[in-house]
Amino acid sequence: MPHKQAPQVVTASGTVAGEWDNEIASFRGIPFAAPPVGSLRWRPPQPVIGWQGIREANRFAHSSWQNRDYCMAVGGGDPGVFSEDCLYLNVWTALETERDKKPVMVWIHGGGYSIGSGGLSPYIGAPLASRGVVLVTLNYRLGHLGFFAHPALDAEYPAGEAVNNFALLDQIAALQWVQDNIAAFGGDPDNVTIFGESSGARSVLSLFASPRASGLFHKGIVQSAYTLPDTPRAKALRQGEKLASHFGLAQATAEQLRALPADSFWPLSGKLGVAPVPIAGDAVLPHPMMEVFSHGRQHPLPLIVGSNSDEASVLSYFNIDVAGVVQRVKAEHPLGLRLIKWLYPGVKSESELGRQISRDMAFTTMSHVAMLGQHKAGAPGWRYYFDYVSENARALCPNGTWHGSEIPYVMNNMHLIESTQVVGGEFTSQDRAFAEVVSEYWLNFARDVQPKSAYIEGAVHWPRWRPRGDKTLRFGLHGQRELKVESRFMRLRLRLFRLLMTRLVKLE
Fold it and tell me: Catalytic: which of 84, 241, 311, 406?
């Protein structure tokens, strides 16, 4: 029987009214911080100003300024209306009245920190919410609005307390909103899992490394995070001065910088653009994320980390020539190249070798680094490798699973994604059945995993990663459906690449 009245929830700032989608209540466009405009640009997010009466929460709010065509081509669809006023989140929940609160899953979208939105169709949370969690997605400041350093802005802070990672602070503010409000939506604030893909996955890792995020979440899932190093703060400051000079502000004041039009930043590229990584050295991320994990100093919480079999599919968007990777290795590490070729038996052409080296050095190695860090921290970790290709896409994806193609399986929302956004067209019944299997692991992690858990329940037991066994769960094999726990998967090459990546993984 359809619901007659819109679902309503009383938050700390006021009452919101959403919409019903069968038995799931969706609340879209809830503000979690004050608009970061005017004097609040490049400042930490400030509290929401409360409202009287009922606020409609039935449409997605503004996204941060970005390249619409780029987002539609590779970011998951049309991000909608742009505005600097973009700090909103969305909630899907069954809103059942029961004593036990539901696990909470907070999705952080990807897009290289330059495109994306929490309201894109691949991230719709109703299907997971229908299986017993409360699902949250969010927007955050992108590009220069989200990551920026300049001496004039630093002067506003006491020594050592400057902030440059405004996007990460937005995510932290959203997590604080979850702590304060999610119980009213049926969620358990003591069981919050953060998860994301690509730069969203880098955000998860950065939040694990940030002292500002302590206590705001309890588990993390990292999908296709890359090993590109964080931007050192000194470099970010120099880049900020170059950007100011580009706008004719060689001796810029904070007021002059904040007066620049909000839409003037996103078209900038090259040396005036923003790298797809946070800035290391401010109060939000005092030390580079990779360094924190290498020493096991991250928040010691359960973590899933994995990547896809054709992550190199995304590198062309960063103007990285995968074939040229072999030439660089040959020039810088000629003896290492011999060893690398031995680690890739059967790979003959330099283009294919470069493609696989790029995938493993830039993406697969991240799971190895993170698992070693988890072991050092005494926290559980699980590693996966996604190699299933949708049936209608197999002829178009001969090298494996493209960057981001696991998302519909994790979110189990294939029926909500337009076929024009899907490689090869419609998903098949086999694809949908595999999505049920994949998403159940994510749900079981959110529901049941504790700091002492030894495995994750699913179609096969997924054992906790330990250095000696080095267990990895393979979702798919050569594009076909298969679940397989493999020991020491890519172990030798990942050990080598962990040593080489800091010198060879770069955008230049």
Answer: 311
